[in-house]
Design goal:
single chain, 585 residues, mainly alpha, Methane Monooxygenase Hydroxylase, Chain G, domain 1, 2 domains, elongated
Length: 585
């Protein structure tokens, strides 16, 4: 094997890794439309978690990448450790698909059967699909078609890389030096070590398996040699997740450790078992030459048996990694969102939406508590209102930074619209929370100065508070559920709140003229009315975003709101209904 062959081998490996990368990235994006609620299924049953782990890993062609994402999910609180373990089981099985794909480069002509199969040899059809993919990449504007074409192109590059590697090592079949080097792999420990080291270096078990598959074309690799190497490769692939868990919280580190322990325990059980069975029954295939399909088959059987053995002991595996990695800080906080999730932008969008909904819930709950304090005079929840406001500020900081990162990734038009929506709404949600504290401060001022409104003023404020409660509920639900119908009712109610504000001011002036209240009452009342009216404005913005994103590619909320008031029968009908519902006595 001369220097040119070495370069060809390195080039082939580079193409293989590059093909896997672009194929993986495009498949993640292409599958984004069907991922809604995907990770909710993880919590429903271990088997669903297993299927999701297997399916996602088969799509992105890397158990290392999927495990890194799982570490991110656990670090963000999206999964528990036990749920993650079942997904890891699935990821370990899903990774075998790549080895079967790479077998295509090993199809040869010969007998009648293989003669038929030779029509499927990559050298026959890969150039054709590459040309078709290039055509669509250059001449179509449809995003889904471009993504599919990129997947196909990545697949073509992967196969070409495998062909290069196979061609580079083909000359080794006649090399006595190479044959003598391979004899050291008769020692299973050395084979295991080689598999671990190679995978550690390239950080991809799929690519490492591909190297082994290409070496089988020399005819010098036996089943007995391949088994410990494959086992070692599966241990070596864990390094990526372990490195990724550095700096993560305790449960995320345990997740990476669970992936490592799964493969180490599998090796400890199955490798000695294989040699014991071979010693007793003298397995005939152990010393026969293995081919690409044989490597894929061994890899698949090993993974499936590993899962079958360890599945009943998932909870014990959880306890083991919990013992190995103990909690150092009992007050450790879960990260709201983890940058590892950016590897799957579609999932990152889901997580952002979940957190924005949660943030909106804190803001709305804080305002509801403030409204209760307004109508009852009970300030016992003052501390909680302020804590919720601080929580909302924290969410805004983390989400705002992360949404910018997500927007820079490859997203579908729908996801881009959702990210734009959330970036617009963060300030509205945060301002609702601020107004809950503003309202609380006004009530605390009244208490400290012993200011009390008249019964008439209290009744009027109660009506307006009820209207704000309803608009809070409507905006919160319509955003969480993307309910356009409910969102269309928010703006009419917002107009009613505006009317109530002006009417309450007018009535206060009348009472002031009749000496039923003082200027000091008016200052506090003005602050309270301003907070309530502005809360309804922010709720209107939230509902307007829901409507705009559902119906348009761009956001022009203010034009929408102006247009809906101008000549809309539904708006007029809803406005009159709310005006009647929140009638002042």
């Amino acid at each position: 094997m001369d220097f040119t062959d070495v370069l060809q081998l390195v080039c082939g490996l580079s193409l293989l890794l590059f093909g896997m990368s672009i194929m993986s990235n495009s498949m993640r994006k292409r599958a984004a439309e069907g991922r809604r609620g995907l990770f909710d299924s993880v919590t429903k049953s271990p088997f669903k978690g297993f299927l999701i782990g297997a399916g996602v890993t088969a799509l992105i062609q890397s158990s290392s990448a999927s495990t890194v994402m799982i570490v991110g999910f656990v670090n963000s609180g999206m999964m528990t450790l036990l749920q993650a373990i079942y997904v890891i089981f699935g990821a370990n099985v899903g990774t075998v698909i790549t080895s079967w794909i790479m077998c295509l480069s090993g199809l040869e002509g010969g007998s009648n059967v293989t003669g038929v199969l030779s029509a499927f040899k990559p050298t026959v059809w890969v150039p054709i699909i590459a040309i078709i993919a290039t055509f669509f990449l250059l001449f179509t504007k449809k995003e889904k078609i471009k993504d599919t074409a990129t997947v196909i192109m990545g697949f073509a590059v992967l196969i070409v890389g495998m062909e290069y590697m196979t061609a580079a090592v083909s000359g080794l079949s006649q090399s006595e030096e190479f044959a003598s080097i391979l004899t050291i792999f008769d020692n299973p420990l050395l084979g295991l070590f080689a598999g671990v080291v190679i995978t550690l270096i390239i950080q991809s078990s799929a690519a490492s398996i591909g190297i082994l598959q290409s070496l089988t074309t020399t005819g010098a690799i036996t089943f007995g040699m391949a088994v410990p190497i494959i086992v070692g490769q599966n241990i070596g692939t864990c390094i990526t997740a372990v490195l990724s868990s550095i700096g993560a919280n305790t449960n995320a580190k345990r997740t990476a450790m669970a992936h490592l322990m799964f493969n180490i325990i599998s090796a400890i059980i199955l490798l000695p078992l294989y040699y014991l069975v071979n010693l007793i029954f003298n397995l005939s295939f152990a010393n026969t030459t293995i081919n690409m399909f044989g490597v894929a088959a061994v890899h698949t059987i090993y993974k499936i048996i590993s899962v079958l053995i360890l599945w009943p002991f998932a909870t014990l595996l959880e306890k083991l990694v919990t013992k190995l990695i103990r909690t150092k800080n009992k007050n450790e906080k879960v990260t709201l969102i983890d940058d590892r999730i950016l590897k799957t932008p579609a999932v990152a969008v889901i997580r952002c939406k979940e957190l924005t909904v949660t943030m909106n819930g804190y803001a709305s709950d804080g305002m509801r508590m403030a409204l209760n304090a307004l109508t009852t005079g009970d300030l016992s929840q003052a501390k909680t209102i302020r804590e919720y406001e601080e929580t909302v500020d924290h969410y805004e900081d983390e989400l705002g930074s992360f949404l910018i990162k997500v927007s820079a990734t490859s997203l579908t038009k729908k996801d881009t619209a959702e990210i734009t929506e959330m970036m617009h709404l963060l300030s509205d949600i945060e301002r609702i929370s601020d107004h809950s504290v503003d309202l609380l401060k006004s009530l605390e001022e009244m208490k400290s100065k012993k200011i009390e409104f008249s019964d008439a003023a209290k009744n009027e404020l109660s009506v307006m508070a009820n209207a704000v409660r309803e608009i809070l509920e409507m905006s919160e639900v319509c955003f969480a559920k993307n309910d356009v119908t409910l969102a269309s009712n928010v703006e009419p109610l917002e107009q009613v709140v505006d009317y109530l504000k002006e009417e309450l001011k007018r009535r206060h002036v009348i009472r002031l003229q009749n000496s039923q209240c003082t200027m000091e009452h008016g200052f506090v009342l003005s602050d309270i009315l301003t907070s309530l009216e502005r809360v309804s404005d922010h709720c209107s913005n939230i509902a307007g975003c829901v409507i705009e994103v559902s119906g348009h590619d761009s956001m022009d909320m203010h034009n929408y709101l102006r247009g809906v008031k101008a000549d809309d029968d539904h708006f007029k009908e809803a406005y009159n209904e709310y005006l009647d519902k929140f009638k002042l006595s």
